[in-house]
Amino acid sequence: xxxxxxxxSIIRPAEPTWNGVMTLSELDQVGAVSHVPxxxxxxxxxxxxxxxxxxxxxxxxxLVYFYPLAxxxxxxxxxxxxxxxxxxxxxxVEVEYDCNMxxxxxxxxxxxxxxxxxxxxxxxxxxxxxxxxxQVTKFRCGGVSLGVMxxxxxxxxxxxxxxxxxxxxxARGEPIEQPPFLDRRILRAGEPPLTxxxxxxxAYSTPPLIIGETTAEKEKKKETTFAILKIxxxxxxxxxxxxxxxxxxxxxxxxxxxxxxxxxxQIFRSSCRARRHVYNQPTGFIIPxxxxxxxxxxxxxxxxxxxxxxxxxxxxxxxTILVGGNFDDWFCMIGLAITVDVRNRMKPxxxxxxxxxxxxxxxxxxxxxxxxxxxxxxxxxxxxxxxQGVTCDYVNSTIDYLKCLExxxxxQDFPKNDGEEPFYGNPVMGVVSWIGLPLGGMDFGFxxxxxxxxxxxxxxxxxxxxxxxAPDGGIEVAVCMHTECMADFKKFFYEDM
Length: 497
Fold this sequence. Notes:
- The protein has 10 helices and 24 strands.
- It is α+β, with helices and mostly antiparallel strands.
- An 8-stranded mixed β-sheet has the order 11-24-23-21-13-16-12-19.
- A hairpin with a 5-residue loop joins strand 5 and strand 6.
- It is globular, with a radius of gyration of 23 Å.
């Protein structure tokens, strides 16, 4: 479809802001340090209004408080990053899209969604790439969309939606309600480690391959299918009832399993079954970043010496951990990764509007056959048990480990323009859940959005999915898998609901 650029500007804070270098915490500098996309769709605004101008002027006002977003990242030795708070500004562009919003199918994410986002040239030095980019797209029908790209190195989802909420508030002519807490020293940014790690628990490796394959080329070429699986509130309750059927209160399980725990467990079990793992395949549940949850279901393929095997996942990289074993042949190790928000796990708790990444990684281990053959409560229990291990001491231990690393770059995911990015499809599967985040209600003065696409990662190649609260209630699970596995995934996913 034809796209025409009509206006563009660089938006800087409306008032002078602090100028200097802001040190990032170690939790900011690992994992995804690229940009996260969000798109809001709106009905046609009144004819005498200018959506682009409203968005731009209110952005200038809100950047006075969120001024790091008007700066630029700067790379240091050892892969470290910091923010140069230089008020260089955020680019905002306006685009006319030659179609109606309904033709785009805005309620169903599609590849055309990428046309609604500002373009980023990752071949540039990181010092030249804006932290925040915005695109206003006007449709032929009069509807508009607001595409926002924000650097994950600067803040997490909790902070991102705080920023957007205050931005929309100021667009409506209201004063800021809750300014951000910007001092990252509360997570010991720029400070030396408290203790030296007793041992090095992590050794990084490349993404896993299918057993017997030496490259991922075969998997890359396979046809994929995208689907949105709707789960009603009644079906969610059915899953919860199944998982809690034999639940009795005890110190290890003081409350019934939650909506997230049972949906995550169902996705994991369905994926294992659809990909037809053998019983004795070792599996690990890996829990990174924040409790408004990112999940990655991971398959590891390794030929192992008899005495031991080693594997863990940390900040979206594959790493090693010593685990006893005695295996003669090839095996496949799979894992489920979840993100854990630590704001309320620190002592004292972090300010509610802490602005940054407040996330850590943990791992759960299991056997694939056990995941498939046991009741849903088995998998839900594994997830809960590991999350409960995320304490203030665990967070500080993670920070100390990262501080002692000479080079953080092996733990950073940053896009490349050479086409040689790692393949995270089969045998890898990712699930990101936005349950619990304040996704909707972003009214910039012309009414709330009619739909929000929080992340386009589900449109990537095989193995990505998203859990999103549905606009009309219930849950939507957006999933991309190899076509040969999709029918089985759907079948297993809806079983027993």
